[in-house]
Amino acid sequence: MTVAARNPWLEAEARLGGRYAVRVLEPSPPAVDDGEFFADDPAARGDAAAVAADGRPIVGPTAEADVSWSSLSADDPELAAWCAARWLGPWPRLNPLPAGYAETREALRRLAVYVLAPARKAVNGKIGLRYTAGGFGTPFFGADEQLRVEGAALVHQRGDTADATEITSLATVAAFTGVALADDPGVGDDVPALGDANDPLSVDPSASASVGAWYGFSASLLEVSRAELNAAGRACSRVQLWPEHFDLGCSIEGV
């Protein structure tokens, strides 16, 4: 089925009428081919010269911005709700975990290990994933391509078009994305077994949304900490979701 293609950066720019240079938590196109990270750094302030040339104040989720999303939306309930849905602040409460959460989380971990990360690695050698609205996915790679989970569906975006399929088994989503399944997906040693790729993947939409909410919450806190650490001279790496452990993390210099 066809779904809407997304560009979180342009969505945020449009939401503010172009008055601000925006920083968000989600990856946006175009794909980056820098020979190092092969991904954008959506929450970071960015190159000083580029910021000066743009001239607009930066609104973002961390202290690197000139104004925070939280303060900008303080007197605008509609903007506050828009920000909360994307974990830009003000932040919503995490709901109690629904039934089926553990099974759904493990199914999505297998999807990350055997489909999402290998799809990205085949193009640029990188396996790191990111938080995306309502779920998680790859940064944009190759010809502005992205795989991301939304509820119980897997979205495959290429350029300005996107299609989605229900997550039913590893075999079906691999066929949908063109990924060749392998017992060793090349994303680390601590991975669940591939097993029978035709076995059903138990992905409950409500439980999947809870997984996405946790990643949004975690990404927002880690990006805030990262900005503070870097400002204090403590180098902190980019925030990434590692598929084999299925957790978000970053590395802090000296820790």
Give helix and strand order, one letter per element, not per position.
EHEHEEHHHEEEEEHHEE
Number of E-type strands: 11
Total helices: the number is 7
Name the structural class.
Answer: alpha+beta
Span between termini = 46 Å
Q: What portion of the residues fall into strands of 2 or more residues? A: 15-25%
Q: Order of strands across the biggest sheet? A: 1-9-8-7-6-5
Taking all Cα atoms into account, the compactness measure Rg is 18 Å
Low-confidence stretches: none
The whole-number mean of residue pLDDT values reads 96
Overall shape: it is: globular
The biggest sheet, with number of strands, parallel, antiparallel or mixed sense and barrel status, is:
6 strands, antiparallel
The amount of helix comes to: 25-40%
Would you give an account of this structure?
By secondary structure, the protein is an alpha+beta fold. Helices cover 34% and strands 15% of the residues. It has 7 helices and 11 strands. It has helices at 8-15, 48-54, 69-72, 77-85, 101-124, 170-177, 205-231; strands at residues 2-3, 21-22, 58-60, 67-68, 130-132, 135-137, 145-150, 153-158, 161-166, 240-242, 247-249. The strands form 3 sheets. The chain has a 6-stranded antiparallel sheet. It has a 3-stranded parallel sheet with strand order 2-3-4. It has a two-stranded antiparallel sheet with strand order 10-11. The longest helix is centred in the C-terminal third of the chain and has 27 residues, at 205-231. The protein is globular and about 55 Å long. The N and C termini lie far apart (46 Å). The mean pLDDT is 96.
